[in-house]
Specification:
The structure is a homotetramer. By secondary structure, the first copy, chain A, is mostly helical. The first copy, chain A, has a domain of about 140 residues: Tetracycline Repressor, domain 2 (Orthogonal Bundle). Helix content of chain A is about 60%, strand content about 0%. Chain A has nine helices and no strands. In chain A, helix 1 packs across helix 2, helix 4 runs parallel beside helix 7 and helix 5 packs antiparallel against helix 9. At the B-C interface, loops of B face loops of C. Chain B binds a DNA duplex (21 and 21 nucleotides) through loops.
DNA sequence: GATGAATGAGTATTCATTCAT
DNA sequence: TATGAATGAATACTCATTCAT
């Protein structure tokens, strides 16, 4: 608790724009370790399955066929692994959202639909990260290290809320709803689906999205 | 080591109703010691705030102003505390649901509305239990001890799904929705609200329920 | 909590012989780390001196000059240490017994004498293991883990009883004795000597054996 | 460890000849608590079955249908219970031994036979105490409190060894045996039988004694 | 890059014992 | 006599992390 970790701060890797020097010193060959990325993937799988806290560094190492101590050649803490996972997810989804907003132009209904489809679309590729966010966020947010995620969250919220408000102004969305509240409900409904969504199932992410769009736009009532 | 623990299963106390043979002793006054109940409440608060795993037995004891070992005079494991919390929640909500179903009679729309209002209504009194369910269920379900919760879940699902189907047959709900899927989305949307719902806030549980009912029944579109 | 311990069963190391798939790693050099063996020896000494239960993991670690947690790098439980000790003892003595039986051929008197000498002969090299068996068996046998020892015991009993019966049939042993009972008395008399037998004493294991053989074969009476 | 127990010393109860004031103060009605004696018996049974260390004060209390703390109204420590058990055993057997020696007169063979029969005869009435001695003595002897048992042991040893020596001098026992060694072997063989001796079995204590006397006096050889 | 050994701080749990009621 | 609550010290075991080889 209250880790006095030399590591706390911002994520080192993946950080900068172009060709960030990956780790302290060494000056590894730019696009560096596939090994590293492989390890992150293994860890993500475990974090999603058992939860961040319940997953031990040994679990990850065993999965990779090495000893736990050896992991510290690639990462400097367990936290930095999950950081990498979450950062990847957030960078990706925010880029996607921005694209949707731009493309959506002045059509709020189309934009919201696009955002919903995008969100559902991340369920499969970012399954592990989303699961971690759902299950372990309450724990993770306790560490200053992950404060940046809250900031990203705020930016995302603004995108959705602005679109909802625009829709109300244009008369396409009901006026008796609180945009902020509505956004949260939509957001949570999408992400929480990670708990029972099965990638290979007959109801894929697209099907889910369409089903939800129907309910969200027109309700369950038969008009 | 070689735990001869007789605890696994259902909580001992809480006997009240039918045949709680207390152990050898007296036959104490049914109401499972206020002390115990107080401790459960403290623990629930902590579990909700920090998560089940991250909450140590010491945390709970300190909160109660006693030593950690002393907790074992009242409970025989950390698990049995959370068990008591969750059992209480499930017993309560299922009773409420059954009442709604009965009272709803043959009006699916009213019944669903009642279920939604009931669910939102538990947010405040069962805040801690619901938070634990949302955050720690992934971990907790790994233990056979909590298998019974899954069974309760199934029973609840049946109530909702049956009502949704009845509504479709009566022509009040759209036919192009999957009842199971719809149930899940409604359920998750309600519970997940625990993350940002603030008991004292201007938007109380009732307000939330009404807002959600609007969206759920008629969608966000302006018709 | 929810021990995902893969350890229960037989000791991992000691693989040597046949098919010890080590885990994922290399395939290390058969001889189960000298460090480990050294630790087992230290533990055995303590178990013998203070008893299994009264010996704490800290005691063992302190004796080894490390911290108690560090022991778990080598063993996964206190039980697995004592298991290793007892297994070593049983494997050794059973092999010796089998050799005596084979070499004894058709001479029951010689065979019994050989068995007695063998048994006394283990007093010194297996002092600790035998002491543990004498003092802690009542406790240890309560754990399924050590059920295999009972099986080995049965096999040993058969060797002795068969030999005693053969002797009776050949007319070298009295007919008015119960072979099983006689075996038990001999066995216990030998092992119980561990309580006062001092390795360096003037009465070494061989002397003890010869003394006992005299009494056992011809009694204390002067004929 | 190194109990700073106010209680250490000699057993208070059972001590004096006639009407010892049983416990500190109160001046209870002379032949006092049958309750107390009952509790000792329950405890003895548990100690025998599970071992002294593995038996918790709660175990004993539960067996008696009271709470663990209540036991301290009768005894001032777990040790004092086992003390009472062992003291009772030793007092009884030493009295019996003395009687045999006196009655044996100048016939060493008859005396030894009497001692052996006496020893086997205690197996049933003192089953629990003997079991405790066999299994837990190694632990118990570490406490100064039980030093007096060693003294009693020495006295007993002297009785046997003197008799054996007398027999050698009279020419009834072989000269080539070490009296002390022989005594120990006989003693241990008898007590250790407690491990497999079953009170109700077809081979009762008397049968065991006779069987052993045969082997002890004349050996297993057919002459 | 990896091993193998160790650290150090922590975790849930146990248990003999005390004591006010 | 007994209860019920608590103590305090110990116990086996866990785990992220470090580091010499």
């Amino acid at each position: 608790m209250t880790t006095t970790n030399a590591d706390s701060g911002r994520p080192r890797t993946r950080s900068s724009g172009g060709g960030g020097t990956r780790r302290r010193g060494k000056g590894s060959p730019a696009l560096a370790s596939e090994r590293r990325e492989h390890l992150v993937k293994l860890a993500a799988e475990l974090f999603a399955e058992k939860g961040f806290q319940a997953t031990t560094v040994r679990n990850i190492a065993e999965e990779a066929g090495i000893l736990s101590g050896s992991l510290y050649h690639h990462f400097d803490s367990k936290e930095s692994i999950v950081d990498e996972i979450l950062t990847g997810f957030f960078e990706d989804i925010m880029a996607s959202y921005r694209r949707v907003i731009e493309e959506g132009g002045d059509d709020p209904r189309a934009t919201i639909a696009g955002l919903v489809r995008t969100a559902f679309g991340t369920l499969e590729p970012h399954r592990a990260a989303i699961t971690v966010m759902q299950n372990d966020w309450n724990y993770l947010r306790g560490m200053e290290r992950f404060a940046y995620l809250t900031k990203s969250e705020d930016e995302v919220e603004k995108m959705w809320v602005d679109t909802l408000k625009a829709g109300q102004e244009q008369g396409v969305f009901r006026l008796d709803l609180d945009p902020k509240l509505t956004y949260r409900m939509i957001r949570d409904t999408v992400w929480v689906a990670i708990r029972w969504f099965k990638p290979g199932g007959k109801l894929n992410a697209e099907g889910l999205a369409e089903h939800y769009l129907k309910v969200m736009f027109d309700g369950i009532n038969l008009h």
